[in-house]
Design brief:
Blueprint lengths: L2 H20 L20 H4 L28 H5 L9 H6 L6 H8 L18 E2 L5 E5 L4 H6 L6 H12 L8 E4 L13 H18 L3 E5 L1 H8 L5 H4 L4 E3 L2 E6 L2 H6 L4 H15 L10
Parallel strand pairs: 2-3, 2-4, 4-6
Antiparallel strand pairs: 1-3, 5-6
The protein binds iron/sulfur cluster (SF4).
């Protein structure tokens, strides 16, 4: 090869190196200063190829010892975190299938994760059978629940008990809990931050119970499980999927106390639940 051809080739190589350096791909190349040869390096020896390249055939074996080349690091990979991203809320909940309700209650402790702890009397974790195939999820404790530490024990709770019994079940057969475990002052709706802080415990309860059917009582429960802002009227009485569990939203018993005419709709919804659970569907209405 002539001297002028060598110079041209060297210049082209330098331009190519500069181009890749401008792209931030310099780590693909051995530093020019690290060459042990005083001769201008040939492209074949100076440009280290990514080990995963599929475009070029393997170089022929040579008896010459190849120059030491720094380990290749793909710049894109170098920017990736070495540790896996933390699991999502749902992944974390999915791992907790073997958790017992008692373990989840222990983990909740005397919770101060949101400001509702400042006004509560008792945490209302949940009540019922750990083997329940039917779970009712409400919004949050009211005054009676806050005083007793049990869910749905006030007027709305008594109506829920009647509905459960009308289905041919008893309260201890099912599990009842709420989105938030502490009473919002004045029975206001829980705020988004309060729901965010408390709902992971609800998800863990559901994963521990693995129920056949979840009945959401009211908009807050339905919206929390579906992560939706849609009105409950769009979905009331429809079967929905909550991470593999069958879920059916219906009206909250407190709403039925104010609007008794809606009981007929709720009873239709509960009859769907009864059919799903293999219970005898009765023709009578819930009182
Ligand atoms: S509502 Fe839930 S997150 Fe907030 S303090 Fe009570 S138990 Fe903790």
């Amino acid at each position: 090869m002539s001297e002028s051809a060598d110079i041209t080739r060297s210049q082209k190589l330098k331009q190519r190196l500069r181009f890749y350096e401008d792209l931030g791909l310099a780590p693909f190349y051995r530093e020019r200063g690290s060459s042990r040869s005083s001769q201008p390096p040939s492209p074949a020896s100076s440009v280290a190829k990514p080990s995963h390249s599929i475009e070029e055939p393997p170089l022929p074996k040579s008896s010459l010892k190849p120059p030491d080349v720094p380990p290749l690091v793909c710049p894109a990979k170098a920017l990736l975190p070495l540790t896996p991203a933390p699991p999502s809320l749902f992944e974390a909940a999915n791992r907790s299938h073997s958790e017992t309700l008692l373990q989840i209650r222990d983990d909740l402790g005397e919770c101060t994760r949101c400001k509702l702890h400042t006004t509560r009397n008792k945490i209302v974790f949940g009540d019922g059978s750990p083997q329940a195939k039917l779970v009712f999820v409400g919004e949050g404790p009211g005054a009676d629940e806050d005083a007793q530490g049990l869910p749905f024990v006030g007027r709305a709770g008594k109506l829920l008990t009647q509905m459960i019994e009308a289905m041919g079940l008893a309260r201890p057969d099912v599990y009842i809990c709420n989105v938030v475990k502490c009473r919002p002052p004045g029975n206001r709706q829980p705020e988004p931050g309060e729901v965010e802080a408390c709902s992971p415990f609800l998800f863990r309860q559901l994963d521990s119970l693995q129920p056949k059917v979840i009945v959401c009582l009211g908009a807050t429960a339905f919206q929390t499980l579906l992560q939706s802002n849609r009105s409950i009227s769009h979905f009331r009485g429809q079967w929905l999927d909550f991470r593999g569990y069958k879920m059916l939203p219906t009206y909250h018993p407190a709403y039925l106390l104010r609007n008794p005419a809606a009981k007929a709709d709720v009873w239709k919804d509960l009859q769907k639940v009864m059919a799903e659970l293999g219970l005898e569907v009765k023709k009578t209405k819930a009182k």
